[in-house]
Amino acid sequence: MNNSVPIIFFLxxxxxxxxxxxxxxxxxxxxxxxxxxxxxxxxxxxxIVTRGPQQINLADSELSTAGNDTSAIGKAGTAGVVxxxxxxxxxxxxxxxxxxxxxxDFAVFENSFDGLFLELAFVEVSSDGIYYARFPATCLNxxxxxxxxxxxxxxxxxxxxxxxxxxxYGVPFDLEELADDPGIDVNWIKFVRVxxxxxxxxxxxxxxxxxxxxxxxPFPTPFISGGFDLDAVGVIHQSDPNLLNEVSNDxxxxxxxxxxxxxxxxxxxxxxxxPAIHVFDLSGRELQTEIISYDAxxxxxxxxxxxxxxxxxxxxxxxxxxxxxxxxxx
Length: 330
Prior knowledge:
The protein contains one helix and 21 strands. By secondary structure, the protein is mainly beta.
């Protein structure tokens, strides 16, 4: 039996008139994206979870245990979910970098069964796996009130927070919002970090939005499945692996990442000779050229004159070209 119409009708009647952000899935004006949407071209292929406690205000609270690292890999709805616990987090990786395309660029999926019981999470992105930029989250709930363990929340009270839509509907994010952050390259996002919101308004452990206001969601959730239940991260815009005419990763190793004064380069095929290394900034301006003598060892590139940021490394001869991206951190 199809119950979608009465559910939507109920949601529309229940929502608060003062809310102003995107409404729940199925309601006019929502940004929710179904997992079967043709807009998704890829899904996270790795995940590392750091668990939080089931109830952070109890010193002896056990960690949440539902699911595991592999539960958040692949398409939403296919591998279960992993519960993060209070303040827990998950870092997801991707085969190809997420890039800043037109409109939404990726979406995060949770498993809210009705779109009313909402467990929320902050979302951050990283180009190098070290520095993360957080999407500016907003919560309009009155911080003097709380949402109890089994109480409902209004999706329209939240912006840039994962978990505000029901199961199989992802919350989308637009990298353009972070384009001015010098610590990331919005056209080279290799990692997404999802961090559970601790929904309490207690100053000792509450999570705060971009304005310093507590983000209120159901608290406590003292279960093995407590906290944000991560289902998947779907990619909408990704880099073209053939765009830069790159040779296989087995061909070149660059370390450390990020680099500071010296970048080490190891090439994997000794039959090719490369006379020079070229360094470009992200606008394509050549900054540095180093003549090299290739002897199958480690080439050391002096990067002391480069400012903090992201760069392209190009090594080429008449037969082949290697292009790779690296980051300088001070």
